[in-house]
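Researcher: Re-running this chain for the archive, since the previous output was lost when a drive failed. Same request as before.
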Amino acid sequence: MKAKLYYGSIVKDKEEQKEVRSPYDGRMVSTFSVSNEQDAHEILKIARQAALQAKLIPMHQRVNWLLDVAQKLENEREKMAHIITDEVGKPIAFSRVEVDRCIETIKLSANAMFHINGETFDTTAMPSGKKSLAFYKREPVGVVLAITPFNFPLNLVAHKIAPALVAGNAVILKPTSQAPRTAYELVKLFIESPYAPKDALSLIYSGEGVNETLITSDIPRVISFTGSVGVGREIMQKAGIKKVALELGGNAATYIDASANLTLASKRCAVGAFINSGQVCISLQRIYVHEAIYDSFAKMLVEETNILHVGSPYDDQTFIGPMINDVAVEKAKRWVQNAINEGAKPLCGAKSKDLMFEPTIMADVTEQMQIVCEEVFAPIVSLIKVNSYEEARGKMNASAYGLQYSIFCNDLAMAQRAIDELEAGGIVINDIPTLRFDLQPYGGIKQSGIGKEGPYFALMDDYTQIKSVVIC
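Model: Regenerated structure tokens:
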């Protein structure tokens, strides 16, 4: 199936095509039309004109647009799940979950629009004022550029385009080239809906000059990007005067206190560390364990990890499928071997075949090792022994990242301290930092990024702007 370009409401096919092959078995699963600088310029012009009309579309039509797409996506749940699995190798059970979450995200975006309101002011509050009608309203920003990654190729697209579109913006979507058809099929549902405003959504893929043209243009007023720190920094440097929202990943950590329920903690940590082959921004990478229960917890975590089924992503029982590509696997292998050379010890895993990387637990690590201090984005987790919550807190906060952290304990005072003292955009008590609900504000601090996702919060912070009005 070809994933084509959408110039607004017009679908186009290009002569130059690239193939996408399954990370699991190497089959060609899709192709996409390679874009170029001219495509980017054309789509920018279309989006600029579309934004003038999109903001005039009645809110009820925009809301019904999203609800119509959500309903059609429900009808195509199994088809979409298989496309995700084909393109990125995500186990089919989790691909179905992603489709379900995408549907929820679209519905949440529609509902959030009912809560985007303005406010009136009494202009006689100060002696310098005079009697008038003064208020502010929220209006769409204009054109939004959304750039999305491979690890959640459907739901992370929805988190950007659904709130942006329901606010009355025009959107240019540039999805990952590793899952072009996933994005294409979702965009197709939006564009073919009878409620769709003309040209409000465009789709473009990577190609020579595309990124530079889109990012440096004055036409997009907001860039929303999810990806690496390096690319995020480049976007910030080139974007100019416009709003930039960045979700740049993290180095998620948890602390297991001596008071914790170890059965719960070990089961959940195995999930948090290895779901989606560790290719999650909030994948659990560092586990700080109180020395009194370190040996017991390590044994239980290995047992829970060994239960996880590694295999075909098309098997309903599979928990861990392939990594996305050779580059990702080679990086993971290199980081593990470097840690072993420096004295670390694998408790399980540390082996791979093709793109299948076994879930790996590392012990005897140090804070300087890459698998501890940098984002590994692979099924690798490190155990670090500590003598107190205070030591764990210091080590967790020393990271350059700050997306999500968690703590397992049965000590209310400690939990309250963790909420106040851990430096991250999100804190989870008695579960993994990998936990995310789509209606919540989501985003990090420090090198983990700028801004928040979650439909309501994205609408408030990124996709609408305040206009002040005075009627004398």
